[in-house]
Amino acid sequence: MNYWWRRLALSLGAVFALVVVYAWLYQLGMAAFEGETKTFAQALQIVIESLTTAGFGGDAGWDSTAMNLFVVGMNLTGVLLVFLALPLLVVPLFQQALQDRPPESTDLTDHVVICGYSPRSDVLADELEAANVPYVFVDDDPELVVDLSNDGTEAIYGELDQEETLRAANAGEARSLVTDVDDETNAVVILTAREFSSDLTIVSVVEDEDVASYHRYAGADETVRPRRVLGQSLATKATTTLSAELRDTIELSEDLEVTELLVQDDSDLVGRTVAESGIRDRMGITVIGAWFNGEFVPVPGPDHRIDGNTILLVAGRRDDLTELKARAVSTLEHRPENVIVGGYGVVGRTAVETLAGNGVSTTVVDLADEPGVDVVGSITDEDVFETAGADEARSVLLTVNDDATTIYATLVLKQVAPDIEIIARANETENIPKLYRAGAEYVLSLSTVTGRMLASVLIEDEEILTPETQFELVRTTAPQIAGKSLGEVDLRARTGCTVVAVERDGELLTDLGPEFVVNADDALIVAGDDDAINRFVALAV
After folding, report:
1. Which residues does 99 contact at the CB level (< 8 Å), separation at least 6?
2. What single DSSP character describes residue 64?
3. Which residues belong to any copy of the RCK C-terminal domain (predicted)?
């Protein structure tokens, strides 16, 4: 709107200057051609009457040709100004006034107030929608709020640190408030929200681990640290691919564990379908699904052949999974256990600490020359990776806070060291397929980790067991399918999920055939990708 006020002020200034010049010329013309002396005020009156086509009063009728032509020119100027003002000023100003104004309040109750919107908020929104939990975004960008509202997302405009904004968001009737902006802004929002209501449950997303205690002191009930969890997960994924030892599993019972296995090039699984590999029939392992170049397939069929980019999501006994892990690793000569870490922010630092704790050496690459950085330079520079020893490293972790840079670095790495294993961080889930197409072997997004961690805190009766993996494993009740058999519901076909186990009366049941009937009090442990889990929650919870 400031642009239009400036434009209007400049236009009015130009018209004023034109009127003054015309009045001065009229005064001179009347003295020279008509022999009459006019004051500047009288000349000004005549000019305004001429430009506005309101008439000329006592000065109508001039004897000289020069003055008549001059008055004709003023008349034409007035008409031209009217025609110019309509399209250039008046119409745009009316359009601006009629444009959608951002909503500034909501009538929602028992909802989640989310302070600050970013692309990583979409995962949380999807989780809340699947669980039928209402929510409203609060942001101080009016254009963003208008866009969200036009897309059907509940959002309101307001200053995040103002009590009036929280009142407009109906925070007094909300079930909880989430603040996910930056550490300093989050602290101010927490203080404001706590002053507004002592009963409101406040959850804060923390970037720097050191400030978590400050947020709790300010009044946050829960703090989540997705960047640290993401760094640990990426590092753990690197350590699990360095050997045939089974390290990264979710233990559900003594006889049942769930894990995802990255199939490496030259593994004896490559080139086979799941059926041909004997994973199900010979090894007794349940294949929940698989990622083929970033696309999750819940029931891999004969058209899906395992390759060096395939990630298998499997469940079974630990001994059987250990055997499968040994088959998934490369049969070629083992490469040095050194990992290059590109980016030394919160995620990168955490990854380095995790790798060091597992006895894995690292070479850190970052733009900043600071303690802990081994090679200073851009991760998109071939020479930098060569200096870091990419041709001899086992894996590289790309942890920078920019998806475009990560994608480009992946392309560069595939030229510098085609055989190196690339484990990458993404900020937005929509960029995950691009990273797989660029050549990454494993990708996990900050949006996924953040959304799952928040959803696990905010949604009752739903526990997300794996916020830090590419797949999602949840423990939840399923009242909408109580009294029905698994075969009757056909969850795999309808949602893409697999019921891995059921907790009933303190016992974990794992032998689940199509005839298994779900009871109202059962807690189902369900696995799949995020979209599949959301479909399951919407169907069964």
Report:
1. none
2. S
3. 247-330, 457-541
How far are the Cα atoms of 26, 366, 382, 408, 418 from residue 389, in angstroms, in the given order? 83, 14, 11, 19, 13
Could you list the beta-strand ranges (E) of 373-480: 375-376, 395-398, 421-426, 442-445, 462-464, 472-477
Judged by phi (left if over 0) then psi (alpha if -120 to 50, else beta), residue 284 lies in left
Q: For residues 379 and 407, what is the distance between their CA atoms, to the nearest angstrom?
A: 11
Range 158-187 average pLDDT: 93
Nearest alpha-carbon partner for 121 in 138, 141, 109: 138
Angle between the N-to-C axes of helices 346-357 and 226-240, in degrees from 0 to 180, rounded to the nearest 10 = 40
- Distance from C-alpha of 470 to C-alpha of 127, rounded to nearest angstrom: 15
What are 95-107's pLDDT values in tens digits? 555 556 789 999 9
Quickly state the pLDDT bin for 350 (edges 50, 70, 90).
very high
What span, in angstroms and rounded, lies between the C-alpha atoms of 126 and 521? 25
260/251 Cα distance (integer angstroms): 13
Residue 5 CB partners (closer than 8 Å, separation 6+): none
Tokens of 332: 């070629």
CA–CA distance, 261 with 304 (Å, rounded to integer): 16
The overall average pLDDT reported for the chain is 85
Question: Pairing between strand 295-297 and 286-292?
Answer: antiparallel
Structure tokens at 454: 């928040």
Q: What average pLDDT does this structure show over 443-466?
A: 85
